[in-house]
């Protein structure tokens, strides 16, 4: 089941590492930070914005 993320919330969130913008991957339920190459999980509609919880992305 995929959960929608409020677009207003997404517009306010930034990567805690780079302070750059995030992209929402609805299917994977992750917030992607292209600059940091990290994917932050979204659990039950709540973004988990902890670097230690993020998944490293392949370049």
Helix content: 10-25%
Distance between the termini: 28 Å
The CATH topology assignment is N-terminal domain of TfIIb
What value does the Rg take, in angstroms?
10 Å
What structural class do the secondary elements suggest? mainly beta
Q: Give the quaternary arrangement of the chains.
A: single chain
Q: How large is the share of residues in beta strands? A: 25-35%
CATH architecture annotation: Single Sheet
Largest sheet: 5 strands, antiparallel
Instruction: List segments where confidence is low: pLDDT < 50 over at least 5 consecutive residues.
Output: none
Please work out how many helical segments DSSP would assign.
Answer: 1
CATH class designation: Mainly Beta
Sum up the overall morphology in one term.
globular
Number of strands: 5
- SSE order, as H and E? HEEEEE
- What is the number of domains? 1
Mean pLDDT over the residues:
92
Family: Belongs to the UPF0434 family.
Protein name: UPF0434 protein A0U93_10010
Organism: Neoasaia chiangmaiensis
Pfam families: Trm112p
Structure description:
This protein is mainly β and 59 residues long. It has a single domain (7-56), classed as Single Sheet (N-terminal domain of TfIIb). The chain has one helix spanning 7-12; strands spanning 23-25, 30-33, 38-43, 46-47, 55-56. Strands 1, 2, 3, 4 and 5 form a five-stranded antiparallel β-sheet that branches. The longest helix has 6 residues, at 7-12. One of its GO terms (cellular component) is cytosol.
């Amino acid at each position: 089941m995929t959960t929608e993320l409020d677009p207003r919330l997404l517009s306010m969130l930034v990567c805690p590492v780079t302070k750059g913008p995030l992209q929402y991957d609805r299917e994977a339920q992750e917030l992607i930070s292209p600059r940091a190459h990290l994917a932050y999980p979204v659990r039950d509609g709540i973004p988990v914005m902890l670097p230690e919880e993020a998944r490293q992305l392949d370049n």
